Amino acid sequence: MDTFISFRSISELRILSALLFLFMFCSSLRLTEAYDSLDPNGNITIKWDIMQWTADGYVVYPINPCSNASSQAVVTIFNYQQYRHIQAPGWTLGWTWAKKEVIWTMMGGQTTEQGDCSRFKGNTPHCCKKDPTVVDLLPGTPYNQQIANCCKGGVINSWVQDPATTVSSFQVSVGQAGTTNKTVRVPKNFTLKAPGPGYTCGVAKIVKPSKFISQDGRRTTQALMTWNVTCTYSQFLAQKTPTCCVSLSSFYNNTIVSCPTCACGCQNNITEPGSCVEGDSPYLASAINGPGKNSFTPLVQCTSHMCPIRVHWHVKLNYKEYWRVKVTITNFNYRMNYTQWNLVIQHPNFDNLTQVFSFNYKPLTPYAAINDTAMLWGIKYYNDLLMAAGPYGNVQSELLFRKDSSTFSFEKGWAFPRRIYFNGDNCVMPPPDAYPWLPNASPVLRSPFTLSLTILWTILAHLLLN
């Protein structure tokens, strides 16, 4: 009897272990996407510098904002992400006060709501809400309301595209009776929308006070108190479905591999009316700009993949020592012009990239010495704006690669990219066994999902039988 119970317990333990392994594996397929291996240190950091204590609070601005040294901003948003930027309508920053703080004045930004300030007599605070929400001011704001790095409508570029415009700042004067460095409390529950969800912010941490150097370099001042908040991005939090897909073609095969069906959702006008519209529909204009339409909710052209963005990789020509690729980005979203767009492509031949036509290019080296990742973006005033769906809703370029005899091959899909990001979002790739093959080739690859299930069932069977 004891032997039977022991044997049964071991069997149950093995089954439980196998199921636990399966659960962790499936969970990792989703969770690991929150960590971007191509930009492992990418984040948005919010720095809050207190520069002066007052009778009823503190001021987070060092000096007169009209002076020449007004670049020393207080609440500063730094974008340390290499290729993920914040486009219009820009960032929205929120938090919850720890006590009964109010915002007396702001410069370079404003709260979206004032809140209930009826308890104040005389001067009225800028915001009395327990959980204020701040937005950037728009371009063209009067100079006496500006500080350095403000008033760009909340638009912040990525680090690789333009490091000089990866910062946004605003000034805020906070009121709380008797506040000092011993009584001040760090705000809680920081939230960052850029412009929608996707970012998760950690707890504000008090760090070593920031130092500021005057323009003439002869004097250094120091913040009275500084805390940092770090926010990281997850594509799964940003949207329920992917935002882009990849299609493939080549000169040596007539097959055009389209984006996977329903890559970004399926057509279902019964449950989701207006999710897509035909390009020749007489109701197209009203569907785009009709009353109550949110201009930032995607309205895509009806396709089999239903993606707002499609990236097409075409292996175009083969020379003796070089080979050429044409890349085309097509916008199927009728409601969105993509400003400062960018593309990140991973392919082993980028270490021998010879020339890029009509796009800016910079190599990314997330794996130290391995140069297999490239970032591409449009040339300013030429093609840095990807227009909404229509006859002008595409941009394209060609890439010229030098052949490396030790690695180059057109066989088994080697000429196609390993993965592609558009504006920092991972695009859906076709399954490897659908890639265009050389004539007389016999593809025998299995999809990664099928292969993973096979391995899992093999492990499970082994555990049960032993």
Q: What are its keywords?
A:
4 helices; 30 strands; Immunoglobulin-like; nine-stranded antiparallel beta sheet; 12% helix; 466 residues; mainly beta; 32% strand
Descriptive overview:
The chain is mainly beta. It folds into 2 domains: 44-237, Immunoglobulin-like, CATH 2.60.40; 240-280 and 297-452, Sandwich (Immunoglobulin-like). 12% of the residues lie in helices and 32% in strands. It has 4 helices and 30 strands. The strands form 7 sheets. Strands 1, 2, 3, 4, 6, 9, 11, 12 and 15 form a 9-stranded antiparallel beta sheet that branches. A 6-stranded mixed beta sheet has the order 17-16-20-21-28-24, with no helix packed on it. It has a 5-stranded antiparallel beta sheet with strand order 25-26-23-29-30, with no helix packed on it. It is elongated and about 85 Å long.
DSSP helical segment count? 4
Label the structural class.
Answer: mainly beta
Domain count, please report it: 2
Low-confidence spans: 1-10, 18-33, 61-73, 442-447
Give the second-level CATH assignment, the architecture of the largest domain.
Sandwich
The CATH topology label of the largest domain is: Immunoglobulin-like
Shape: elongated
How much beta, percentage-wise? 25-35%
Mean pLDDT: 83
